[in-house]
């Protein structure tokens, strides 16, 4: 198995930087606070219009034409519409399954957010807060959501698998990302007590989630576990025969490598991919099929400035005011990095690019130079990414 796919980020789980217009007229930085600053009618209208227009049947046709096999769809904990004031989105996921099956794609359902967050990131639903794992009732609620998803889609032809939790942050990444400074909480009182998730909790949760999901899902469908940013920590986990359909998911962004000291040069990035990432992924493939469920071509070199680990524009770090590289120079950087990373994902069990599209205007909005590389559609159109050409 080598899966080639793309994330449908910012469709059913909002990320402000990917679609700034949705947050206009508010100071909300994340999905949790958006409905608190709009009337219920305005909130519902914005969400429903966004969901109906952002991803459509045509996008599944396009993704298939890019020679992709699968889409990873981030979904929120309120997908079933039972957590007011948030609006459920199970009908959208139903449509996605029909489109995927029509055009020969599969879907990895990724539970991307949980109540009070598993990471404190903006994409965890509420910035600067990480308290879900401390609340047994909310942990049980999430297990119930996973059960319902497995029951509804477990036997669908289009299901690739279910991912019980996206990017739970364990101790090392909590420090690397400096979570509560990078993602300042809107309500410091609510954020009090926030802490990284322990590996002990995460292992216990994954075992329970596997049992709940597999009750409703045949063995040929996968349960996909995020590594908690600790790729090498899972060698002794789920090695018994009953867990034959488990995939380990690692998210590998060059901007995180930069935050850990990778030099911002083509040589530095290539060295990181070949000498650090490749040996670790090759080692872990002995224990699980390993996929890279999120990665992209974004890097500081092509932005023309040090983005401080992807913080330019978003966290008060100045972005570039003008292009410092020619079109050809940027193409050379991106194409070289695409080739190296795709070669590595070919050696493991595949990838999902983050993300299919974004609605950020990188031309007219100051500071966003280089951020177009998060958008797979643009990367393909610009010749940075070889999708659809049958080459690697």
TrEMBL record:
It is a single-pass type II membrane protein. Pfam families: Cellulase. Residues 53-298 form the Glycoside hydrolase family domain. Signal peptide: none annotated. The keyword Transmembrane helix applies. Keywords: Cell membrane, Cell wall biogenesis/degradation, Glycoprotein, Glycosidase, Hydrolase, Membrane, Signal-anchor, Transmembrane, Transmembrane helix. Its main location: membrane. It is found in: Cell membrane. It comes from the Bacteria. Belongs to the glycosyl hydrolase 5 (cellulase A) family. Glucosidase involved in the degradation of cellulosic biomass. Active on lichenan. This is Exo-1,3-beta-glucanase D. The lineage of its organism: Bacteria, Bacillati, Bacillota, Clostridia, Lachnospirales.
């Amino acid at each position: 198995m080598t899966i080639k796919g793309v994330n449908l980020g910012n469709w059913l789980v909002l990320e402000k930087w990917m679609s700034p217009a949705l947050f206009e007229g508010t100071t909300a930085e994340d999905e949790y606070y958006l409905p608190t600053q709009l009337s219920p009618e305005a909130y519902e209208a914005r969400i429903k219009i966004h969901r109906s227009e952002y991803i459509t049947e045509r996008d599944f046709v396009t993704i298939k034409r890019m020679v992709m096999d699968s889409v990873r769809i981030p979904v929120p904990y309120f997908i079933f519409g039972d957590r007011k004031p948030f609006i459920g989105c199970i009908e959208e996921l139903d449509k996605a399954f029909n489109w995927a099956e029509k055009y020969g794609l599969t879907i990895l359902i990724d539970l991307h957010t949980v109540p009070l967050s598993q990471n404190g990131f903006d994409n965890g639903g509420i910035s600067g807060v990480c308290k879900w794992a401390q609340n047994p009732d909310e942990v049980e609620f999430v297990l119930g959501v996973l059960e319902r998803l497995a029951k509804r889609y477990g036997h669908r032809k289009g299901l690739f698998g279910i991912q019980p939790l996206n990017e739970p942050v364990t101790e090392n990444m909590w420090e690397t990302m400096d979570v509560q400074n990078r993602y300042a909480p809107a309500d410091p009182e609510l954020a009090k007590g926030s802490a990284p998730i322990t590996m002990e909790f995460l292992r216990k949760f994954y075992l329970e989630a596997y049992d709940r999901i597999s009750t409703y899902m045949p063995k040929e469908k996968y349960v996909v576990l995020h590594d908690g940013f600790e790729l090498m920590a899972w060698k002794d986990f789920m090695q018994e025969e009953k867990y034959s359909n488990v995939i380990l998911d690692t998210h590998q962004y060059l901007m995180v490598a930069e935050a850990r000291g990778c030099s911002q040069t083509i040589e530095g990035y290539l060295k990181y991919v070949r000498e650090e990432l490749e040996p670790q992924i090759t080692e872990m493939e002995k224990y699980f099929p390993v996929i890279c469920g999120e990665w992209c071509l974004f890097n500081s070199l092509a932005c023309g400035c040090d983005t401080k680990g992807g913080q330019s524009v978003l966290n008060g770090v100045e972005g570039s005011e003008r292009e410092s590289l020619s079109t050809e120079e940027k193409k050379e950087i991106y194409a070289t990095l695409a080739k190296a990373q795709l070669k590595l994902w070919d050696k493991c069990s595949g990838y999902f690019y983050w993300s299919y599209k974004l609605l950020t205007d990188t031309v007219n909005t100051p500071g966003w130079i280089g951020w177009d590389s998060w958008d797979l559609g643009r990367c393909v159109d610009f010749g940075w990414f070889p999708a659809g050409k049958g080459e690697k």
